[in-house]
Amino acid sequence: MRKVLLIFSELTDGDVEWLSTAGDRIHLEKGAVLIGNNVRVDSIYFVLDGRLAIKTAKGDVIRLLESGEVIGEMSLVDPAPTVVSVEIDADATLLRIPDSKVRAKLASDTAFAARFYRALCVFLADRMRNTTLRMGYGTGALDKHSADELNDDLLDTVHLAGARFDRMLKRLAG
């Protein structure tokens, strides 16, 4: 659930409520392709349940994603075609929010835009840092525990982010 915590820690309760009402809850079965390789992504996805596999063009699994992960966020910053695919590894339920709705909200609500873009920056910086360490660059030692540690700023709001995600799950389940 760590990635959603990075994003939801920067947003307000109202922002998370908007996200949950702006999107559609979808269910996909094992083997379905959510996002193909070399395509443009037109939605952002929050994994509510299940497991997804991020795969290279050759089909090698890079990473498995579970509840609380976010997919398609890069398309809001750079709509270039994907370099990986995302496949359903175990039946999954996701919240899908079309980029068009997010972009309209960003254009009409500057306070939301500031919080949302900061959340994306925190999220992408964390991903870049972990990828750099995983590839063996940098001076930090990568161990399972340090990779999952949150910085002091996020620790102050992580409990709120967790509560926001729990409320989203409950709202979308009923």
TrEMBL record:
**Gene3D superfamilies from the UniProt entry:** Jelly Rolls (2.60.120.10)
Q: Name one GO cellular component term.
A: cytosol
Any Pfam family: cNMP_binding
Question: SMART domains from the entry?
Answer: cNMP
Q: Which domain of life is it from?
A: Bacteria
Provide a Gene Ontology MF annotation, just one: DNA-binding transcription factor activity
Q: Where is the Cyclic nucleotide-binding domain?
A: 7-103
Matching entries from InterPro entries are given as:
cNMP-bd_dom (IPR000595), cNMP-bd_dom_sf (IPR018490), Env_Response_Regulators (IPR050397), RmlC-like_jellyroll (IPR014710)
Q: What is this protein called?
A: Cyclic nucleotide-binding domain-containing protein
